[in-house]
Amino acid sequence: MAVVLHVRGQIRYGEWRRFRETVERYRDYRRSKGYVVPEVLLGLSGPMNSAVLVYRYADAKAFEAEDRAISDDPEYGKVASAMPYRDGTIGYELYREG
């Protein structure tokens, strides 16, 4: 059964251009490592400057395996933390497709 992860956050004011650049670098990095590459959604309503990254996994085992791989990847944190999210706004929601 497929698993979908939503990572929601708000981008710091004045940082949209930087976010667009860094999220593409992040996606390229994930692609180069064989990780799932998220779809990027930009908010049209709701909290200002919101974005959602949507990750799709074949099943929970695939999600867990990638989570372990990322934990062992020393560069991952550097690439991911370059995205200019406002402090305290990132949230994670994990779903299964029904």
Any descriptors?
3 helices; 4 strands; 98 residues; alpha+beta
Order of helices and strands: EHEEHHE
User: Cα-atom Rg, whole angstroms?
Assistant: 14 Å
- Helix fraction, binned, reads 25-40%
Mind summarizing the main beta sheet? 4 strands, antiparallel
Unreliable residue stretches: none
Pairing-aware structural class of the strands and helices? alpha+beta
Proportion of beta-strand residues: 25-35%
Total helix count?
3
Mean pLDDT: 96
Described by the principal axes of the CA atoms, the overall outline is globular
End-to-end Cα distance: 8 Å
Question: How are the strands of the biggest sheet laid out side by side?
Answer: 2-3-1-4
| Number of E-type strands | 4
Show the helix and strand layout.
Layout: E1 3-10, H1 16-33, E2 39-42, E3 50-57, H2 60-71, H3 76-81, E4 91-96
Antiparallel strand pairs: 1-3, 1-4, 2-3
